[in-house]
DNA sequence: GCGACAG
DNA sequence: ATCTTGTCGC
């Protein structure tokens, strides 16, 4: 099994950072004819948006959504949900490994059914090239779905020396010239994306970056024409609707959370350790990523097991299963496997 | 050395 | 991601 790092690097080779599509951007003039050729729109009309929302009481339960906005009417013409139980932690810089498995099937389902609203480009709730290794969620999803994608971030990832204060300063400097966007140049000199000035009243910028098969200039143009409020409409609608879905189904979801949670979490942990003999976890150190590795063969003494236990609690259990500290202890899981080193040793021998 | 870290 | 009512301003 390749590591997440290796997967990112190899998928990145397939990334296309320039315009690669049949359609054209709609002109500012109003004569938007719905001309079609070979069943495909010649002018950009259907813009997708994806997002994932979570259940507060059990963050391992999530709802992924795909919506499609019709630019001609500015209405949502398609939406589809997917309810999932997450087994992958959120780790900064590796968001795609958590969300792509949810979102990709939604896209493929639509493609396989030859839905006429199949999006020509998808706006993703998460960054694209504006990412520590230049391959964020939007890139990852775009490459795997082979669709043009645009990254739309609400927060600036810690990457290439960029910081938010500087961005806000740049945006305000560009205000006089009427410029709504500022391109973001990292310490390396590379252009990583662009910051979009929020509508007046709000302070936080949003961040646009290349996902796949779209140039930054095109991404910016599409962000412009799809923005009515703070966020571009496809992403905003995906956000709102997936949140609504969670809210509406809350009673049922709470049942689900209580019924299978405990055993699933414990069994998965067993399997992970037993099959690979090693637990790996990516961590950041001095702006570089590395892996924290624990080999089961390292666990000879009670002390080592105790250290392993605290690592496990801090770095694996909470994040791997997206548990909060309170939830973790409420589950009583520490008694099950890792209450102390001796107990862990006993488990390892069997 | 620590801390900054998309959703 | 999630937590949250009223409130300040156009």
From TrEMBL:
Pfam families: Endonuclease_5
Domain of life the protein comes from: Eukaryota
Gene3D superfamilies: archaeoglobus fulgidus dsm 4304 superfamily
InterPro entries to which the protein is assigned, alphabetical: Endonuclease-V (IPR007581)
HAMAP family given in the database record: Endonuclease_5 (MF_00801)
Name the record gives this protein: Endonuclease V
Organism, as annotated: Hevea brasiliensis
């Amino acid at each position: 099994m390749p590591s997440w790092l290796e997967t990112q690097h190899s998928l990145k080779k397939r990334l296309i950072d320039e315009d690669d599509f049949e359609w054209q951007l709609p002109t500012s003039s109003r004569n938007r004819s719905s001309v079609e050729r070979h069943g495909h729109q010649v002018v950009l009309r259907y813009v997708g948006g994806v997002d994932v929302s979570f259940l507060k009481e059990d963050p391992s339960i999530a709802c992924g959504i795909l919506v499609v906005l019709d630019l001609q009417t500015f209405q949502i013409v398609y939406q589809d949900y997917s309810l999932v139980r997450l087994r992958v932690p959120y780790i900064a810089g590796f968001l795609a490994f958590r969300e792509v498995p949810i979102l990709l099937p939604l896209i493929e389902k639509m493609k396989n059914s030859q839905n006429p609203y199949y999006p020509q480009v998808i706006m993703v709730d998460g960054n694209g090239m504006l990412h520590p290794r230049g391959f964020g969620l939007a890139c990852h999803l775009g490459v795997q779905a082979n669709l043009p994608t645009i990254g739309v971030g609400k927060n600036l990832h810690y990457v290439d020396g960029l910081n938010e204060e500087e961005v806000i300063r740049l945006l305000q400097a560009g205000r006089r010239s009427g410029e709504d966007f500022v391109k973001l140049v990292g310490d390396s000199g590379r252009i990583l994306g662009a910051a979009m000035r929020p509508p007046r009243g709000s302070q936080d910028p949003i961040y646009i970056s290349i996902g796949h098969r779209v140039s930054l200039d095109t991404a910016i143009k599409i962000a412009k024409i799809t923005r009515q409020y703070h966020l571009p409409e496809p992403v905003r609608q995906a956000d709102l609707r997936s949140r609504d879905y969670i809210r509406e189904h809350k009673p049922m979801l709470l049942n689900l959370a209580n019924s299978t949670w405990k055993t699933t979490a414990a069994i998965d942990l067993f399997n992970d350790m037993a099959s690979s003999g090693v637990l790996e976890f990516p961590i950041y150190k001095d702006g570089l990523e590395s892996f924290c590795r624990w080999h089961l063969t390292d666990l000879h003494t009670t002390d080592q097991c105790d250290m392993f236990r605290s690592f496990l609690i801090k770095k694996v259990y909470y994040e791997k299963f997206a548990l909060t500290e309170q939830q973790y202890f409420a589950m009583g899981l520490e008694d099950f496997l890792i209450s102390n080193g001796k107990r862990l040793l006993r488990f390892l021998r069997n």
